[in-house]
């Protein structure tokens, strides 16, 4: 019975504790509401999430690579070039075998060991779609860009160029010509052949011009960058477009069309003009190109230098240095000129055996102390005319105002 009687007391005590806790919570809430003091809110911190670079993906399984000798197409095997010679050379270029792989830039590209080494070349097997190393490759696994500049004697894969093209316009190419045009043959002729060629070839870089011969199944694709043309030649060799054809990709010969020659000459002139534009002052470029209409009037006034009808030539008006006539051309060279004068003054004092004086700048003066020291050292003493010795005698104070006497 005692246990039965104590249980209600314990339950009542627990209920009372819960009610007290609820009352204290309500009082705290009322106090917070009345005093209008809210709980401190958490400060929002904006986090910048930087995605890590994706590693390059192996394009094929390394176990599938087999070192097999090339098929016999000649009578003599050249161990230096690892191919047969002495056979019919047309068999190789008319072969209808597809390439073993194809590069998918969107999925296969990524960082490799070569990204940590500036000046690395691109992976030839990545362009052909058969590189098994992935991120462990010592070459770049991405498309060439405008900032990838290589020696003109090698291509983007690091292979040495030759002085002339091969007879079939294949191979690495020649260093005597900057070739950005790729020849593509054996294209399946359809009504939308131009759209098909542009869509597949634009995968390897920015295209400048596409010319398609519809009836012959031939296309000429010109890239903006030469490295992209080199990459596309290797990537599209023995590949297919929308049909099961096997493409014949070679370097294009020089276009004999006069319009194409003028276009190439105009492009070279534009590149040279851009280089000169970066080297010249901005105001000079704006005046020459006519972008600043007030520059000509301002130039006519400034280059006269107070002489009516005179206008200084360009080499005088835009000259830079301490001896420039235009005050703008002397900006930044005054200090060097003062230092040179100080050195010359110090050398002159050392030759004369005089102690070198250190001048301090005067407060409130127009010229600085270094300038005053240079001017003081450059002073030239003018010898005065020696006076005649005073004569002694009885006629000391005698003189005449007449010059004839």
From TrEMBL:
ATP-binding keyword on record: no
Region annotation (Disordered) ranges: 41-68, 346-367, 379-405
Highest taxon, organism lineage: Eukaryota
Ranges annotated as C3H1-type zinc finger: 117-144
RRM domain sequence ranges: 180-254
Compositionally skewed regions (Low complexity) per UniProt: 346-365, 379-392
Family annotation (SMART domains): RRM
Location(s), subcellular: Nucleus
One Gene Ontology cellular component: U2-type catalytic step 1 spliceosome
A molecular function (GO) term: U6 snRNA binding
Feature: compositional bias, Basic residues: 44-56
Stretches assigned to the C3H1-type domain: 117-144
GO BP, sorted A to Z: mRNA processing; RNA splicing
Record Gene3D superfamilies: 3.30.70.330
CDD domains: RRM_cwf2
Keywords from the UniProt entry: Cell cycle, Metal-binding, mRNA processing, mRNA splicing, Nucleus, RNA-binding, Spliceosome, Zinc, Zinc-finger
Function: Involved in the first step of pre-mRNA splicing. Required for cell growth and cell cycle control. Plays a role in the levels of the U1, U4, U5 and U6 snRNAs and the maintenance of the U4/U6 snRNA complex. May provide the link between the 'nineteen complex' NTC spliceosome protein complex and the spliceosome through the U6 snRNA. Associates predominantly with U6 snRNAs in assembled active spliceosomes. Binds directly to the internal stem-loop (ISL) domain of the U6 snRNA and to the pre-mRNA intron near the 5' splice site during the activation and catalytic phases of the spliceosome cycle.
Protein family (similarity comment): Belongs to the RRM CWC2 family.
Name of the molecule in the record: Pre-mRNA-splicing factor CWC2
Native source species: Chaetomium fimeti
């Amino acid at each position: 019975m005692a246990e039965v009687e104590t249980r209600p007391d314990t339950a009542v005590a627990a209920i009372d504790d819960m009610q007290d806790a609820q009352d204290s919570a309500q009082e705290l809430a009322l106090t917070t509401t009345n005093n209008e003091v809210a709980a401190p809110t958490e400060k929002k911190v904006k986090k910048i999430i930087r995605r890590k670079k994706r590693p390059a993906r192996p394009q094929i399984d390394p176990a599938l690579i087999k070192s097999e000798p090339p098929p016999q197409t000649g009578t003599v095997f050249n161990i230096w070039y690892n191919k047969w010679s002495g056979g019919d050379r047309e068999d190789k270029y008319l072969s209808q075998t597809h390439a073993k792989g194809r590069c998918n830039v969107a999925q296969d590209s990524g960082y490799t060991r070569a990204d940590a080494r500036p000046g690395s070349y691109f992976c030839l097997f990545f362009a052909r779609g058969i590189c098994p190393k992935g991120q462990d490759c010592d070459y770049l696994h991405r498309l060439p860009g405008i900032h990838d500049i290589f020696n003109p004697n090698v291509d983007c894969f690091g292979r040495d160029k030759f002085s002339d093209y091969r007879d079939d316009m294949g191979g690495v190419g020649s260093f005597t010509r900057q070739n950005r045009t790729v020849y593509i043959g054996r294209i399946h002729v359809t009504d939308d052949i131009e759209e098909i060629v542009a869509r597949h070839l634009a995968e390897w870089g920015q295209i400048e011009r596409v010319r398609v011969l519809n009836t012959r199944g031939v296309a000429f694709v010109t890239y903006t960058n030469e490295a992209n043309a080199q990459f596309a030649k290797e990537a599209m060799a023995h590949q297919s477009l929308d049909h099961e054809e096997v493409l014949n990709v070679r370097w294009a010969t020089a276009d004999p069309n006069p319009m194409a020659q003028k276009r190439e000459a105009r492009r070279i002139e534009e590149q040279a003009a851009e280089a000169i534009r970066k080297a010249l002052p901005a105001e000079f470029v704006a005046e020459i190109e006519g972008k600043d209409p007030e520059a000509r009037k301002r130039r006519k006034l400034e280059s006269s230098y107070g002489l009516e009808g005179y206008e200084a030539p360009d080499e005088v008006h835009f000259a830079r240095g301490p001896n420039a006539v235009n005050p703008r051309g002397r900006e930044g060279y005054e200090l060097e000129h003062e230092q040179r004068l100080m050195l010359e003054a110090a050398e002159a004092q050392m030759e004369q055996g005089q102690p070198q004086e250190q001048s301090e700048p005067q407060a409130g003066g127009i010229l600085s102390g270094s300038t005053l020291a240079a001017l003081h050292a450059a002073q030239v003493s003018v010898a005065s005319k020696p006076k005649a010795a005073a004569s002694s005698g009885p006629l000391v104070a005698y003189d005449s105002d007449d010059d004839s006497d």
